[in-house]
Amino acid sequence: MLGKLLLDVLPYDPDEERRIREVYNRVATDTIDTIQGVVQQVGDSATGGGHHSLPYILGAIAAALVALGLFIFMVRSYRRRGEQQLGFTR
Prior knowledge:
This protein is mainly alpha-helical and 90 residues long. It has helices spanning 2-9, 16-45, 54-89. Helices cover 82% and strands 0% of the residues.
């Protein structure tokens, strides 16, 4: 019953799947061609790059370690202060 109702409402296009496959194939081909072109451009222009960013990476790691150390120091001092206050109130 519901199937007949939907067939009456929704038009059936027998060539729809073929058109969808053609669009997917065209998009896939264009995408692959674009990626190959970009890879060739990057491959041609890359001459041992990456070494200039090493100081920035090491600096970021050092800054993160310093921040972690400061955070641990603040937590320890906060806990000590809390323990001292508990000692005075007892």
